[in-house]
C-alpha cells in the first residue's frame, strides 16, 4: 500500500459491495496465518471485534490435556489386536501438550531479552524435550496441535517445537498464564502464536520505525554535543521507547481515543517531549542555555509537563504529559486521577476516549509501594480508568545498584503487576520490530479487556545515572560491554541493509534531515497538529489571577435551603434504613424545620446539596466516607432488607450535576495523589479527600509536599483539592489525636494553601461552599473535628447557614462586658469548648475567648479588629491542645505578635503560650494522663 493507505483504509467503503468477496478471502487468510496478509490489513483485522473468535479457534487447553492424561494412565482396549504403537503415540501426544503449556508458562525464562547478553539465567528443565520424555527422534512425528495457533490442526514435533521457540524464546518473553480469565489467556496466545511473535511488517512500517529511531538517537547526539556533561537523563540505550510510544498512541487513536495522559520520571523525558509531544527543539535549547523566564520558582526541565495534539488514524488526539517531582512513581496515581476526571467530563465510564500511559523505571517499579497501591486501585469503582498501559524503561540498573539481589527479591522488576493479573510482555529493546509488535499488542489488550497491561522494555543506560556520573565505578563489566555495543539504530540499519529493504543513502539522509530540522528549530514530531482543536482543552481562565481573599457569597435564600433540606432527607419507599440511621434522618428533618439546632453532619450534607442545586459537581472519597468514620455523615444508605445502596444527594433531580461518593481502598498515598490529579483537571468540581484519622495523612506526605503545597509555584498547576483531616485531643492516644497541623503550616508560603480549623457546623457549611463557589483554586486543608460532631454546643441555626459566611476569626460569642476583659485567649478547634466550659464554671468574665478559624493565609485584619474591641486588654495568650513544639504555635506566633504589636505602644500587649509541654509524641496514651494535662493547661489559660 502507498503512504496514505491506512487513512484510505479507514475512510473508504472497501468492505462492502464488490470488494466484499476479496476482503473475506483476506480475512480467511489472516485467520490461518496473520503474516499472510500485509501489515495494514493485519492491523485492521486485529482491531475487529472478536465476537466469533471462540467459534474459530477456541479449544480449551485444560480439557484436552486432561483427556490425554487420562488416556496415558488407562490401558487402551480394542476389539482387534492391541496396538502398542497407538498407546505410545497417545502418551507422547499428552507430553506434546505439556510441552506447549510449559513454553506458554516459562518460555520467557529462555527468551533473548538482554541487549547486552550479560544475563546469567538458570536452566529451565520444563522447556527441554527430555523433560517431557520427547527427543529429536520424534521431530518428524505428527501430533495434534490442540490449542496451539500455528495455522493447522496437525504438525510435526519439529514444527511445533520451532513455533514455540520462535514465539516465546526470541525477542519477546510473555507472562500471561497467571491470568485466571481463559478468554484473556486465549486471546494473547492467538495473537502471539499466529505470527510467532514476529509479524512481517511492510516497507512503510519498517522505514517509519527507522525514522523514529533516527529521531530518538539524533536528539541525544545533538544535546550531547551542544551541552556535554549537562544533566538531561538521556535515552541512549533505550531509544526504542520513541517508536513504542508512537505506536501505542497511533493505535489508541485508531480505536477512537481523544485524550491520552502520560506520566513518567526523568529518563528519556526530554526526548519524548520533542519527538512525540512536539515541543519545539529551540525552546528546549533555550532552557539549557538559561534564556527562559519562569514565573514562580519553576522546576528543572526534566520535571516539566507539556500538552499537544497529534493526528492518528482515528482523528485528533490530545496528549498531556503530567508534571512530576523526583519521587519516581508518585506521578502514577496522579495520572490516573487526571484520566478519571477527563473520562467523567466526557461521560466515558468505559475508558474508550481517555487512555492513561505510565512510564516507569525498573528499580522504582519494583521498589516503591505506591506502584502496588495504584495497581490495586485499577479495577475499583472509585478509581478505575479502563486499564493503563504501563511501560518499564528497564535500564537494568536502578541508580548504581547492579546486582539483582540488592534491587529486588523477585525474578523480574515487573512481578508486582501479577497481583492484578496484568499480562507482562518483556521485549528486547534492540529489536525494534519486536518492540513494535509488543506495543500494538499492549494497546490492543487494553482496548479489548479494559485492564492494565505491562511492557518491560529491556534496554540499557549508555551514560551514568546522569550525564555527569561515571557508571563504570560500580558496573565495570556492564559498561565495558556498553562501550562496544552498537546503538539500536545502527543494528536496525544493518538489518535492513542486509535484507535489501533500504539503501545506506536513505538511512544517512534520515539522520541528516533530522539533525538539520533540529538546527533550524523546527518541530520534529511527525504527527503534530499545528492548529489543535480547542474543544479538547479545559478552560481555566475563570480561575486565574485571583487574590486569596476574593469575595464570594455563600449564603442561600430560605426557599433554596428548604428545598435542599427536603431532598437530602428524602428516603424512598423500599429502602429500609437501619434503626440508628433512621433516628439521624428523623432528627435532620426536625433540624430543617427549625425544631432542633443543626449539627455538624447535617450542615455538611446541606453544603453538598446546595452546591449541587447551584450547578457544582462534588466528589468525595476516603476510607468509610459514605457513613463517615465517626458515623456522622450517612450520605450513603444501605437498605436493611436487600443491601441496596441509596444516595439522596444523587437523586435530587434528573439533570443535577454529578455527586460521586466512594469508600476508598485502605490507601492514603495513592488515593490522595489520585484526587490531586482529579482536581487539577476538573476545576468546576468540589473534590474532597477525607482521612479516616488526620494522622493517616502521614502516609501521603510525599503528595502533600511535592504536589499539593508546591504544584502551583513549580508548575503553574492550579488545584482546588480539599482535605478533611479529623483532629482533636480526646484521649485516644498519639496516633488518633493529631493531623500534624504544624507540618502543613511549615509548608505555607506565598498563599499556596488554605489551612482552616472550623469550630461550628455553620463554619464547615460556608467553608465548603466557599471552596467551590469562589473562583480561587487553592488546596484547602481542614482540621476537622471528632467529638464536636456530636457536641451539644457545637450547633448552628438555620439563619447562620442561610445568611452567614465563613468567618476567619470568631470573636467572643458569650454575653460579656468587653470593657471588663483584661485577658484574651486565642485558640482554634475543640479546645474552645473546653475553655468556655471552664470559664463559665468559674465565672471568669474578665477573660475573652477568640477563635482563629483560618490559620493560613493568616487573617491579620480580622484578628486586629477582634482585639481592638477590648479597650482594657492587658494580656493575650495562645492556647492549644497540642504540645508546644506541635500545633500552630511555632509557625503562627510571629503572625499573632505582628497583629498585637500593631496597637499603640501604651497598650504594651504581650503574647504568651499556654498548652502542653514539648513532646516527641503527639499525645498521651492514657486517658488519665490526658485529662491531667488538659486540666492543667485549661487552668493556666484562665489563670485559675
From TrEMBL:
Signal peptide positions on this chain: none
Subunit note: Homodimer. Part of the 2-oxoglutarate dehydrogenase (OGDH) complex composed of E1 (2-oxoglutarate dehydrogenase), E2 (dihydrolipoamide succinyltransferase) and E3 (dihydrolipoamide dehydrogenase); the complex contains multiple copies of the three enzymatic components (E1, E2 and E3).
GO cellular component: cytosol; oxoglutarate dehydrogenase complex
Protein name, UniProt field: 2-oxoglutarate dehydrogenase E1 component
CDD domains according to UniProt: TPP_E1_OGDC_like
EC number assigned by the record: 1.2.4.2
Gene name of this polypeptide: sucA
Gene3D superfamilies: 3.40.50.12470, 3.40.50.970, Multifunctional 2-oxoglutarate metabolism enzyme, C-terminal domain, TPP helical domain
Organism: Zhongshania aliphaticivorans
Phylogenetic lineage: Bacteria, Pseudomonadati, Pseudomonadota, Gammaproteobacteria, Cellvibrionales
InterPro entries per the UniProt record, alphabetical: 2-oxogl_dehyd_N, 2oxoglutarate_DH_E1, DH_E1, KGD_C_sf, ODO-1/KGD_C, THDP-binding, Transketolase-like_Pyr-bd
Keywords, alphabetical: Glycolysis, Oxidoreductase, Thiamine pyrophosphate
Top class in the EC scheme: oxidoreductase
Domain Transketolase-like pyrimidine-binding: 598-791
Amino acid at each position: 500500500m502507498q503512504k496514505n493507505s491506512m487513512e484510505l483504509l479507514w475512510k473508504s467503503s472497501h468492505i462492502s459491495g464488490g470488494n466484499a468477496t476479496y476482503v473475506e478471502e483476506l480475512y480467511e487468510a489472516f485467520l490461518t496465518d496473520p503474516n499472510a496478509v500485509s501489515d495494514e490489513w493485519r492491523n485492521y483485522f486485529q482491531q475487529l471485534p472478536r465476537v466469533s473468535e471462540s467459534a474459530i479457534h477456541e479449544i480449551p487447553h485444560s480439557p484436552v490435556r486432561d483427556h490425554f492424561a487420562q488416556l496415558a494412565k488407562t490401558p487402551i482396549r480394542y476389539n482387534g489386536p492391541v496396538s502398542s504403537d497407538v498407546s505410545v503415540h497417545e502418551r507422547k501426544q499428552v507430553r506434546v501438550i505439556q510441552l506447549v503449556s510449559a513454553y506458554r508458562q516459562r518460555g520467557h525464562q529462555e527468551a533473548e531479552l538482554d541487549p547486552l547478553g550479560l544475563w546469567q539465567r538458570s536452566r529451565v528443565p520444563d522447556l527441554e524435550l527430555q523433560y517431557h520424555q520427547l527427543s529429536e527422534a520424534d521431530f518428524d512425528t505428527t501430533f495434534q496441535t490442540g490449542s496451539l495457533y500455528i495455522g493447522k490442526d496437525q504438525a510435526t514435533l519439529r514444527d511445533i517445537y520451532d513455533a514455540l521457540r520462535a514465539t516465546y524464546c526470541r525477542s519477546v518473553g510473555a507472562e500471561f498464564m497467571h491470568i485466571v480469565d481463559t478468554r484473556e489467556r486465549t486471546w494473547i496466545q492467538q495473537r502471539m502464536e499466529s505470527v510467532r511473535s514476529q509479524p512481517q511488517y511492510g516497507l512503510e512500517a519498517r522505514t517509519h520505525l527507522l525514522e523514529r529511531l533516527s529521531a530518538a538517537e539524533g536528539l541525544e547526539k545533538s544535546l550531547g554535543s551542544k551541552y556535554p556533561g549537562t544533566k538531561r537523563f538521556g535515552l541512549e540505550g533505550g531509544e526504542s521507547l520513541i517508536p513504542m510510544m508512537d505506536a501505542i498512541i497511533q493505535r489508541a487513536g485508531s480505536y477512537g481515543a481523544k485524550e491520552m495522559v502520560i506520566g513518567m520520571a526523568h529518563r528519556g523525558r526530554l526526548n519524548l517531549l520533542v519527538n512525540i509531544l512536539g515541543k519545539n527543539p529551540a525552546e528546549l535549547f533555550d532552557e539549557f542555555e538559561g534564556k527562559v523566564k519562569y514565573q514562580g520558582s519553576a522546576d528543572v526541565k526534566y520535571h516539566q509537563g507539556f500538552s499537544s495534539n497529534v493526528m492518528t488514524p482515528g482523528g485528533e488526539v490530545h496528549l498531556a504529559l503530567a508534571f512530576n517531582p523526583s519521587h519516581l512513581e508518585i506521578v502514577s496515581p496522579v495520572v490516573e486521577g487526571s484520566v478519571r476526571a477527563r473520562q467523567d467530563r466526557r461521560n466515558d465510564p468505559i475508558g474508550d476516549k481517555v487512555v492513561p500511559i505510565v512510564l516507569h523505571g525498573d528499580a522504582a517499579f519494583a521498589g516503591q509501594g505506591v506502584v502496588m497501591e495504584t495497581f490495586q486501585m485499577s479495577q475499583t469503582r472509585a478509581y478505575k480508568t479502563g486499564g493503563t498501559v504501563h511501560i518499564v524503561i528497564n535500564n537494568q540498573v536502578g541508580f548504581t545498584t547492579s546486582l539483582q539481589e540488592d534491587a529486588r527479591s523477585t525474578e523480574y522488576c515487573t512481578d508486582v503487576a501479577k497481583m492484578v493479573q496484568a499480562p507482562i510482555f518483556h521485549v528486547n529493546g534492540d529489536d525494534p520490530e519486536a518492540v513494535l509488535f509488543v506495543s500494538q499488542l499492549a494497546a490492543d489488550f487494553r482496548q479489548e479487556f479494559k485492564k492494565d497491561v505491562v511492557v518491560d522494555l529491556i534496554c540499557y543506560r549508555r551514560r551514568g545515572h546522569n550525564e555527569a556520573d561515571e557508571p563504570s565505578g560500580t558496573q565495570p563489566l556492564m559498561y565495558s560491554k556498553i562501550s562496544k555495543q552498537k546503538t539500536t539504530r545502527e543494528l536496525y540499519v544493518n538489518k535492513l541493509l542486509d535484507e535489501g529493504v533500504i539503501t545506506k543513502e536513505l538511512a544517512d539522509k534520515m539522520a541528516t534531515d533530522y539533525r538539520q530540522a533540529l538546527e533550524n528549530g523546527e518541530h520534529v514530531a511527525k504527527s503534530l497538529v499545528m492548529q489543535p482543536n480547542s474543544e479538547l482543552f479545559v478552560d481555566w481562565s475563570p480561575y486565574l489571577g485571583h487574590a486569596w481573599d476574593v469575595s464570594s457569597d455563600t449564603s442561600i435564600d430560605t426557599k433554596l435551603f428548604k428545598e435542599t433540606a427536603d431532598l437530602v432527607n428524602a428516603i424512598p419507599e423500599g429502602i429500609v434504613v437501619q434503626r440508628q440511621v433512621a433516628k439521624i434522618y428523623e432528627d435532620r428533618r426536625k433540624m430543617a424545620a427549625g425544631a432542633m439546632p443543626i449539627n455538624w453532619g447535617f450542615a455538611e450534607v446541606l453544603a453538598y446539596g446546595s452546591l449541587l442545586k447551584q450547578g457544582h459537581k462534588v466528589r468525595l472519597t476516603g476510607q468509610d466516607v459514605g457513613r463517615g468514620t465517626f458515623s456522622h455523615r450517612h450520605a450513603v444508605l444501605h437498605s436493611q432488607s436487600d443491601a441496596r445502596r441509596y444516595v439522596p444527594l444523587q437523586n435530587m433531580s434528573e439533570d443535577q450535576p454529578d455527586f460521586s461518593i466512594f469508600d476508598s481502598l485502605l490507601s492514603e498515598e495513592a488515593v490522595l495523589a489520585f484526587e490531586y490529579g482529579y482536581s487539577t483537571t476538573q476545576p468546576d468540581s468540589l473534590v474532597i479527600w477525607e482521612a479516616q484519622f488526620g494522622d493517616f495523612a502521614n502516609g501521603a506526605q510525599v503528595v502533600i509536599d511535592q504536589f499539593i503545597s508546591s504544584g502551583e509555584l513549580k508548575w503553574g498547576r492550579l488545584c482546588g483539592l480539599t482535605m478533611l483531616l479529623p483532629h482533636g485531643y480526646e484521649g485516644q492516644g498519639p496516633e488518633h489525636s493529631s493531623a500534624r497541623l504544624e507540618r502543613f503550616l511549615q509548608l505555607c508560603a506565598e498563599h499556596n494553601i488554605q489551612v482552616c480549623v472550623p469550630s461550628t457546623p455553620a463554619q464547615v457549611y460556608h467553608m465548603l461552599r466557599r471552596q467551590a463557589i469562589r473562583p480561587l483554586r487553592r488546596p484547602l486543608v481542614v482540621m476537622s473535628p471528632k467529638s464536636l460532631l456530636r457536641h451539644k454546643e457545637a450547633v448552628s441555626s438555620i439563619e447562620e447557614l442561610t445568611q452567614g459566611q465563613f468567618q476567619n476569626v470568631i470573636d467572643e460569642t458569650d454575653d460579656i462586658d468587653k470593657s471588663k476583659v483584661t485577658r484574651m485567649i486565642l485558640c482554634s478547634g475543640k479546645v474552645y469548648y473546653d475553655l468556655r466550659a471552664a470559664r463559665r464554671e468559674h465565672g471568669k468574665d474578665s477573660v475573652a475567648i477568640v477563635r482563629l478559624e483560618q490559620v493560613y493565609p493568616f487573617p491579620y485584619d480580622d484578628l486586629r479588629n477582634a482585639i481592638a474591641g477590648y479597650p482594657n486588654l492587658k494580656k493575650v495568650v495562645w492556647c492549644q491542645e497540642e504540645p508546644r513544639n506541635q500545633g500552630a504555635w511555632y509557625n503562627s506566633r510571629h503572625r499573632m505578635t505582628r497583629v498585637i504589636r500593631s496597637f499603640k505602644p501604651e497598650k504594651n500587649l504581650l503574647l504568651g503560650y499556654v498548652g502542653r509541654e514539648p513532646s516527641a509524641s503527639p499525645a498521651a496514651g492514657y486517658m488519665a494522663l490526658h485529662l491531667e494535662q488538659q486540666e492543667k493547661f485549661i487552668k493556666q489559660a484562665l489563670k485559675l
